[in-house]
Design brief:
By secondary structure, the chain is mainly β. The chain contains one helix and ten strands, in the order ββββαββββββ. It has a single domain, classed as Beta-clip-like (Beta Complex).
Amino acid sequence: MKLAHGLAVRPSQIDGRGCFATVFFPKGGKIAEYTGERISRAEVARRAGGRRKLRICAINSYWSLDGSRGGNGTHYINHSCAPNSYMRITHGHILFMALTDIRPGEEITLDYVTTLHSNDKRCHCKAPTCRGTINKQ
């Protein structure tokens, strides 16, 4: 896996492995683009069945990217109810943008809002504002 510039993958206190900054990302700046295999919604449904962790991100109502195949480390960005990044989809590209200043060594986190996981999938972010689940209900 070729990592996006300025990112490292290592053990996370949130869940498994996480994506960490190795450089400073200023608030509002681009962190990286999500990469992976482009798949249809039918293939998303097939792959989602039986997986404990999904690394699939929707581009639109038909196409998605599976970061577990050809990803650049951004597929390890963990969920947090108090995230430091957000996603922007533009012209078929999924970009991660800094919601706050992110310093080297900080884990990059994202509020997933809605996922292919059930609404019972627990959140482990430990934020004071944690809602308890990764899906916003």
